Amino acid sequence: MNLNSEIQFYTELRTVDKARLLNLFLHELAEEARATYGPAEQVHDGAHLRFVNELVHRLTRVIEQLLAEEATRPADDVVLRMLLAPRADKVAEKLVFNAYARAIQGFESYDTTVLMGS
């Protein structure tokens, strides 16, 4: 995966599509996090479950900032580097890369001409 090309792709998206992609990523990340606990919901990898939870916490705020068009939101490259930069923890890196790969494959940019409630 080429970080610079992913940043360029994300930067060129419309704001609503950035939010959609991040939301899809979070959905896929939650799927990846299921590997951190067993069928009885007993956590066997608390460190990585916490990692996912922290990432969800940060990205839900970014999505809120995108949709509110806050000028103080993190720059696009900062968001993508937070997700896709190499990590010392290779298990965490694999969680993110797997989720991102599925999210980007399932993502389709489209024009939203009518939004609910508008």
Radius of gyration, whole Å: 15 Å
pLDDT < 50 runs, ≥5 residues? none
Q: How many DSSP H or I helices? A: 5
How many discrete structural domains? 1
N→C terminal distance:
38 Å
**Please, what is the average pLDDT?**
91
- Overall form: globular
Helix percentage range: 55-70%
What's the count of strands? 0
Report the portion of residues in β strands. under 5%
Write the layout of secondary structure elements.
Elements: H1 3-11, H2 15-33, H3 46-67, H4 76-84, H5 90-106
Helix pairs in contact: 1-4, 2-3, 2-5
Please characterize this protein's 3D structure.
The protein is an all-alpha fold and 118 residues long. It has one domain (3-106). It is 64% helix and 0% strand. Helix 1 (3-11) packs antiparallel against helix 4 and helix 2 (15-33) runs antiparallel to helix 3 (46-67). It has five helices and no strands. The chain has helices at residues 3-11, 15-33, 46-67, 76-84, 90-106.
